[in-house]
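Slide 14.
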Amino acid sequence: MTGPALAGFEERWADYPREDLYKWIHNSQALIAQGHPRAVELWNKWKPTVMTSFAAFTPDEIESIFLYINTPPVVFTPNNPNGPEVGGVDTSNDFIYWILFGVLLITVFTLSRAIINLRNIVAVSEGQKDPVDEMTMVKFLKNKTVMAFLIFALIVIGGYTTVNNGIAFGRQQGYKPEQPIKFSHEIHAGVQKIDCQYCHDSARRSKHASIPAANTCMNCHKAIEKEPLYGTQELTKIFASIGYDPATDKYIDNYDKLSNEEIKAIYTKWIGDSYMKDMNLTALDRRGIRTVNEQWEEIASSMTNELKSKISGPIEWTRIHMLPDHVYFNHAQHVNIGKIECQQCHGKVEEMDVLYQYSPLSMGWCVNCHRRTEVNFEGNKYYETYKSYHDALSKGEKTKITVEDIGGLECQKCHY
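Slide 15: predicted structure.
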């Protein structure tokens, strides 16, 4: 009913032009009508199910889907002792349930034996010759009542596990991907004390925090061209993305029209000159030449991929924090109005050399925060409409007003 699995599609279409695959996605029935061998083969195998047409997809969008299909899934363990330390965890009580289940089972077995012993005492006192057989673990487990209870318990546990795993599906707490540039929040936000909102300026005035553009980086790195850990390698990635030549302190004209080889010549010269000067090497020293080439290979591989062949162009950072499409979240509401510190949701980023997702970002985590977080009514004219709450506070009937009190748990606030 659903057609073949998508994995391995390139091998199955390897004998046909890439454009045929685009046509198949745009309108499969049209390609079948043309008598395309692969299209007809698929139709004969899966008919009468008709594949949905996606005529509006551009080749670039289709290639993006292909890249997603061919990319292995990221597997991570949030509580891996060798991985990042995660916080704001949705606490699980599973171990308590298992302990209670074990205690209940032992209690039932013990009571069963006690009842049989009591029956034997009564039988002996009444002069009966055949006492009731002693309860063993084997007999206990074969008892119909016990078996029914165990089957019921397995169904409950299986249902709970299925629902719990379904709820957690897609969450990425502890996700720590490798980025194209080895950017350290520990150095920028921690050592250099750069405010989060200097780079993520839109967090205080829009829905999205946004990734800063390279020109924000250049506000500092026009002057700071090298760093102690990687030398010129990582900062040259920024220069190469926007066409800034640190050797001349100028932006390169018509940079987007230069080939990768022309770009390589510009920046390998810069890296080589800087490296050899810092290391006090001569131009004939092969160690310097090898290091320049090694650095450039890292730069080129980080700034290009299957869909981006040119080194020039935007830096393609890997997104870490991702909410489902049906969830509405506004950074400005929390940062500018609620005065929530970035670290409350994102953890101590000033201590993270490599950024990772600190919080679970689950619905329960958000709801609990709305239940705890107090709203400051004082001096805010917007909250003057909540007269009943002002009266309750002045009379001492309430000691605080939370986000929950002013509608923070209404479904429509987050699910529009």
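Speaker note: The longest strand covers residues 244-245.
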